[in-house]
Amino acid sequence: MKDVIKSWARRYLYDPQIFILGFLLLLIFGFIYLLGNALVPVFAGVVIAYLLDGMVAQLEHLKVPRKIAVLIVFLVFMACLLVLLLGLLPLLSREVGDLLQSLPAMVSRGQQELLHLADRYPEVITEEQIRQIIAFFGPELSKLGQRLLSVSVASVRGLIEFVVYIILVPLLVFFFLKDKSTIINWIKKLLPENVGLATSVWHEVNQQVSNYVRGKIWEIIILWAASYAMFMLLTMDFALLLSFFVGLSVIVPYIGVAVMYLPVTLIGFYQWGISADMAYALLAYSVLQLLDGNLLAPLLLSEVVNLHPVAVISAVLVFGSIWGVWGLFFAIPLATLVHAVLKAWFQVHLRDPDAEAVEKTQ
């Protein structure tokens, strides 16, 4: 057994390129894990600059000087940010406030409807069973109210952090775009010589991640707009807030879509009760998700490596538990990174023995 392990380690782990690639990955992940919370504005700036760099490259392809292209893209980004802050954010905050005020009425309405179930279907459920259900969920609802209160108490600190991020992130985005080549050259100087394998992995991951993130951003925007129009046609309460979370739900594949059925059902139940209108809302949401999963997502993410659903869900659970929201958003790119590393690793070592013998003789 020891000889087998030694043979495996000698074949796969003693290559200097493998060692350097592994060391760089551990260094990057360790740095993010230890300093991730403190450097959130920097990471946000890197991600946004990474997304905007594609627009800069397109303008450069049209013979626009890079400095002018960076300025144009940055001004467009700032205009979109102002629209978001001055237009959409106040509407979202107002709907959040309305939802918090409506929560007690929603709970009361839900309890009344549950009690009516005993009168309608006495052979299925009794009033005593329903009261036990209400008693079981009552403490959980009170805990939810306490959490919401704690969030509102901590809103002043959150507001300060938000203002700081609004100032810092755009500045970081501008400098990352303007000094991209300088930063990349500086990083290259810090790297060792045997980085051929790491470079090949980077090129593949860069292409996959750029395609995925840009496609996912467009998917969020399109699904947000489509679900908002759908909820407005249904005259559903909290349409903007619901559609916003429907758009964000695609960040977490499979799980986000399923979780969003709960708020759609609760708000539809609060507004219409158990009725045809509530069924129409759930049916419309289901059709929208089917169109997204079978038409929109394949169209936008056609160039992204297809991962098995088990791999996707495992990546969401692992990276989400490590880095929270950022880990959820980048679960598939990180899984793609793992896939690219394994692919490059096996391409280096699982060669035809005859080909290796020819290379040695040469």
Task: Record keyword descriptors for this entry.
mainly alpha, 15 helices, globular
Architecture overview:
The protein is mainly α and 362 residues long. It has a domain at 195-352. Helix content is 85%, strand content 0%. It has 15 helices and no strands. Helix 8 runs antiparallel to helix 14, helix 11 runs antiparallel to helix 12 (276-300) and helix 13 (309-329) crosses helix 14 (331-349). The chain is globular, with a radius of gyration of 26 Å. It starts with a helix and ends with a helix.
Terminal CA distance reads 34 Å
What is the count of DSSP helices, taking H or I runs of 4+ residues? 15
User: If you compute it from the alpha carbons, what radius of gyration comes out, rounded to the nearest whole angstrom?
Assistant: 26 Å
Helix content: over 70%
Mean pLDDT: 75
Overall form? globular
**H and E order:** HHHHHHHHHHHHHHH
Strand content: under 5%
Report low-confidence residues grouped into runs of 5 or more.
151-156, 352-362
Strand and helix layout:
Elements: H1 2-12, H2 16-35, H3 40-61, H4 66-120, H5 127-153, H6 155-178, H7 180-190, H8 196-233, H9 239-248, H10 255-259, H11 261-272, H12 276-300, H13 309-329, H14 331-349, H15 353-361
Helix pairs in contact: 3-4, 3-6, 4-5, 4-6, 4-11, 8-9, 8-12, 8-14, 11-12, 13-14
In short, what is this structure?
With 362 residues, the chain is mostly helical. It has helices spanning 2-12, 16-35, 40-61, 66-120, 127-153, 155-178, 180-190, 196-233, 239-248, 255-259, 261-272, 276-300, 309-329, 331-349, 353-361. It has a domain at 195-352.
